[in-house]
Amino acid sequence: MREVTLLRATVLAAMMLSAGGAYAAVSAGEAAKLKGELTPFGAEKAGNKDGSIPAWSGGSTKPSAGFKNGGRRPDPFADEKPLFVITADNMAQYNDKLTDGLKAMLKKYPKTFKVPVYQTHRTAAAPQWVYENTLDNATRAKLVNHKLTGAYGGIPFPIPKSGEEIMWNHLSRWRGSSFHVDVRGMQTTADGKHVPTVFASGDFQMPYYFKDGSLDKFEKDNQGVMWSIRLLNYGPAIRAGESIVGRENIDPDKAQVWVYMTGQRRVRKLPNACCDTPTPASAGISLFDQTDVFNGRTDRFSWKVLGKKEMYIPYNANRMFQRPISKVLLDNHLNPEDQRFELHRVWVVEATVAPGKRHLASKRRYYVDEDTWNAVLADHWDGNGQLWQMGFSLPISMPDIPATVSPQSFGFYDLLSGAWYVDGLTNDSKEQYKVMPVYSDTTFTPEAMAGEGVR
């Protein structure tokens, strides 16, 4: 009888995790775990059995000596050496902790692609007020027709009951409130030619994370605008003067994106700034929903949780941004010498195109870090069922915020063509990531963008 009961419970749990929001807010009793066995963001506080994943003890909250806001963030673990390096020759030994995309890259480029694995550091942290909002969200947040309701200022579903909730945690993850970055994007062709796609000044703001805000004010005064972005291109020369303004909303039907095209000298609102539409911010190389590994409508897919696993993922990637761009780009991939992988627990979420919908990727698999809710890796299959692309982001430890975030650095490898793309490179930038006071809301309007038009 006990075995039958356990089986029923397992089946019920699986149904809940695949139901796409049918089970949302948790009870106060379950939410209390966020003050005990779970971290304030919902991760397992304890380490793993062999100690290779340590217990979470509050994360990194002390900036390095001499750090100045907007300056280069040093590598807090610069003196560490890899514990071991995974190559095409020894990958079978680590098979269960590698994504399909990483295994495909090791096989495709056996002489140059490597996965250097370092000691695991659970640097994830956030201000206390974000933790308190997360606790409140646990008992009030819901998904209604793929729209987020009842959440503000924290992770909406720290104890998720579905794959769609996990992806909303990623979409609404903590990464600061207002910040400025200068970024570059680079496409690399299959024959190893590096082609600059964008050099932009970017302003970002998340009204969802205004410290002195409230759920009521967010939903009414801010009209559910989760985050806003303004990018002004300085190069390459053919794109200088272009700009883009976007407003992501908790209601995907209310998301808005405008672009300024120098050739037309006018601002145009994009009719379909979503999903598998190429984004102008990357010169059309990347799809809208490949930004930050995933950024798009959740209603395009059916979501299923495959479980939580210990896997090697990019983490604390500050070392990636210490050297010039010319040093970190190889012909076929990023330079392994500048990469840092660590063992972390991740939620594995599979997405298949929903009935009646379409997408260039027939199936996707996302790997979402339990500590930060950053989607750090992704596998994409094309319409023929072939493993097509591997998406990645490079989470950076930013103890001054405090946070471990991947707000601007992401990319993908095309496993079929051999071409690849990386965006958010701040290596050669004067200001890598500068925390800013709250921007005026008019900053993120098409009118302001039109006024800045220079060509």
UniProtKB/TrEMBL annotation:
Renumbered to this chain, region (Disordered) spans: 49-73
Q: Does this UniProt record's set of keywords contain Membrane?
A: no
**Signal peptide residues on this chain, from the entry's feature table:** 1-24
State whether keyword Signal applies: yes
Question: What InterPro entries does the entry give?
Answer: DUF1329
Keywords for the protein's UniProt record, in alphabetical order? Signal
- Pfam families recorded for this chain? DUF1329
* Name recorded for this polypeptide: DUF1329 domain-containing protein
Q: Which organism is it from?
A: Vogesella oryzagri
